[in-house]
UniProtKB/TrEMBL annotation:
Protein residues bound to Zn(2+) 1: C191, C193, H215, C218
Keywords in alphabetical order: Chromatin regulator, Growth regulation, Metal-binding, Nucleus, Transcription, Transcription regulation, Zinc, Zinc-finger
Encoding gene (name): LOC103723698
PROSITE patterns cross-referenced by the UniProt entry: ZF_PHD_1 (PS01359), ZF_PHD_2 (PS50016)
Subcellular compartments: Nucleus
Pfam families: ING (PF12998)
Residue ranges constituting the PHD-type domain according to the UniProt record: 188-237
Descriptive protein name: PHD finger protein ING
Species per Swiss-Prot/TrEMBL record: Phoenix dactylifera (Date palm)
A Gene Ontology biological process term: chromatin organization
Subunit record text: Component of an histone acetyltransferase complex. Interacts with H3K4me3 and to a lesser extent with H3K4me2.
Membership in a protein family: Belongs to the ING family.
Length: 244
């Protein structure tokens, strides 16, 4: 199997391992039905609660009216410790509380159900993110190795070019800063800027020049010089020798 195809299959297999199984997906698909069922039960409880509340309110209002008339007629002693609602009215109020508790239990169940699915999805997303980061690191390592090979070839070209003392050369363009690729510590540096070779460069015609190669921009050149060309350091050295 070809390495590229094999790596692609391994990457896809790694991603597939992080994805939920078919049975787990069915669990996600059943969530709307479960939510709809619980919401339907909550609506039914609401209707039942409203009916019991209306019935209890009417019963309590009637009993309050009966107590008021009884007190006014003298049939009921106006003692607040003895005046109370009927057992039927109290039972209806307790029934309302039970219905409200059932609604709270259903709402809590819905919340826990949704929260469990959200946590499960978050777990899948974290696994996918880990796979993505691993693939990026692997891709970056591959690009870094390619860049190192290119730097080595560039260095060999530079070393071979010095033997012929060519006036200018076009080196490999430096990688974009956005790529954030590692810099080869063994890459030789040139010019007064002490940077690696890039763009067009010119060689000093002084065989004893310590720097030898210079970037066009660093020495103010826009095109290849005609005739012999000396760097500023070598020109200054020649003038001092003539002065002596």
């Amino acid at each position: 199997m070809k390495p590229l195809l094999k790596r692609k299959l391994e990457d896809e297999t790694g991603i597939m391992r992080t994805m939920p199984s078919q049975q787990e997906f069915l669990g996600f698909e059943s969530l709307p039905a479960l939510l709809q069922r619980n919401y339907g039960l909550m609506r039914d409880l609401d209707k039942s609660l409203q009916g019991v509340q209306r019935q209890n309110e009417q019963r309590c209002e009637q009993e309050i009216e009966d107590i008021r008339l009884g007190v006014e007629s003298g049939n009921i002693t106006p003692d607040t410790s003895l005046i109370r609602f009927s057992d039927e009215a109290l039972d209806e109020q307790k029934h309302c509380i039970r219905i409200a508790d059932e609604k709270v239990a259903l709402a809590t169940q819905v919340y826990d159900m949704v929260d469990a699915h959200v946590q499960q999805l978050d777990q899948y997303m974290r696994k996918l993110e880990e796979v993505r980061q691993e693939r990026e690191l692997a891709t970056g390592a591959g690009v870094g190795a390619s860049n190192a090979d290119a730097s080595t070839r560039s260095r060999r070209v530079a070393e071979s070019s010095r033997g012929g003392r060519k006036k200018s050369r076009l080196a490999v363009e430096p990688p974009s800063v956005d790529l954030e690729l590692p810099v080869d510590p063994n890459e030789p540096t040139y010019c007064i800027c002490n940077q690696v070779s890039y763009g067009e460069m010119v060689a000093c015609d002084n065989p004893d020049c310590k720097i030898e190669w210079f970037h066009f921009g660093c020495v103010g050149l826009k095109e290849q010089p005609k005739g012999k060309w000396y760097c500023s350091s070598c020109v200054g050295m020649q003038k001092r020798r003539k002065g002596k």
